[in-house]
């Protein structure tokens, strides 16, 4: 086969692959409701909280005065009731919020969702949470109270890296995967309570508590 023919065949295959990818891609409606932005999956009747801007200096800058954010269990959109089930990657990254309250529907917090939120002190009410993404709270150096609920199964790499205000961590029995450096740099950490049953999968195999100078004894089995 001639080189020109090979190029044409490759181009056709590439074009068809792109068309298939576009056809199969999930389509979300990006909408503003109240103080927050949402990506709505109309087929599944679900929504996730998303970012206002990918520029950290602009992302939810209007919340600086109130600094308290509360997600809704449901939102109304085009006459439909939509369940809010998660926080998308980068949703609040770099924003000025200090308190976040979740409703019970929230099951996942995406990668970098609250990364660099230097004013964030409290995260409340996320009993239904199942997964916390990579770097989800990294650099939240004023975060003091860290509650990880029963039902949580996975904590991503660097999820709480550099949270220098956290003194106590409680690991639920349902947890089966902790990423590398998940609690790295948590220099104020004094106490770890573990209810874990069975083996915890350490993604990248080590350094969950990297940079913690005085590691509590209970961490010896999981670090």
How would you characterize the overall build of this protein?
- This protein has 223 residues and is mainly beta.
- It has one domain (3-221): Ribonuclease Inhibitor (Leucine-rich repeat, LRR (right-handed beta-alpha superhelix)).
- It is 10% helix and 25% strand.
- Strands 1, 2, 3, 5, 6, 8, 10, 11, 13 and 15 form a ten-stranded mixed beta sheet that branches. A three-stranded parallel beta sheet has the order 4-7-9, with no helix packed on it.
- A hairpin with a 4-residue loop joins strand 2 (36-41) and strand 3.
- The longest helix has 22 residues, at 3-24.
- The N and C termini lie far apart (57 Å).
CATH architecture: Alpha-Beta Horseshoe
Specify the overall morphology. Answer: globular
Please tally the β strands and state the result: 15
H/E topology pattern:
HEEEEEEEEEEEEEEE
CATH superfamily: Ribonuclease Inhibitor
Low-pLDDT stretches are 5-10, 12-25
Task: Provide the descriptors you would attach to this structure in a database record.
223 residues, mainly beta, Leucine-rich repeat, LRR (right-handed beta-alpha superhelix), three-stranded parallel β-sheet, 1 helix, 15 strands, globular
Quick summary:
The chain is mainly beta and 223 residues long.
Please render the helix and strand layout as text.
Elements: H1 3-24, E1 29-33, E2 36-41, E3 46-50, E4 68-70, E5 74-77, E6 80-87, E7 99-101, E8 108-109, E9 122-124, E10 131-132, E11 154-155, E12 168-171, E13 177-178, E14 191-194, E15 201-202
Parallel strand pairs: 3-6, 4-7, 6-8, 7-9, 8-10, 10-11, 11-13, 12-14, 13-15
Antiparallel strand pairs: 1-2, 2-3, 5-6
């Amino acid at each position: 086969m001639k080189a020109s023919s090979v190029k044409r065949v490759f181009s056709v295959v590439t074009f068809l692959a792109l068309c298939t990818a576009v056809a199969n891609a999930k389509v979300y409606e990006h909408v503003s409701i109240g103080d927050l932005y949402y990506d709505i999956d109309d087929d599944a009747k679900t929504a996730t909280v998303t970012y206002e801007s990918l520029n950290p200096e602009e992302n939810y800058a209007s919340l600086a005065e109130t600094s308290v954010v509360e997600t809704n269990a449901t939102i109304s959109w085009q006459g439909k009731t939509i369940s809010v089930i998660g926080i998308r990657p980068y949703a609040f990254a770099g924003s000025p919020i200090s308190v976040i309250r979740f409703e019970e529907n929230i099951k996942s917090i995406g990668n970098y969702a609250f990364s660099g939120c230097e004013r964030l002190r409290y995260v409340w009410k996320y009993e239904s949470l199942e997964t916390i993404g990579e770097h989800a709270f990294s650099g939240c150096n004023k975060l003091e109270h860290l509650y990880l609920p029963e039902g949580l199964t996975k904590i991503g790499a660097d999820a709480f890296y550099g949270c220098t205000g956290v003194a106590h961590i409680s690991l639920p029995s349902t947890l089966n995967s902790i990423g590398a450096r998940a609690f790295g740099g948590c220099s104020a950490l004094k106490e770890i309570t573990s209810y874990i049953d069975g083996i915890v999968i350490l993604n990248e195999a080590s350094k969950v508590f990297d940079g913690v100078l005085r590691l509590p004894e209970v961490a010896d089995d999981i670090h």
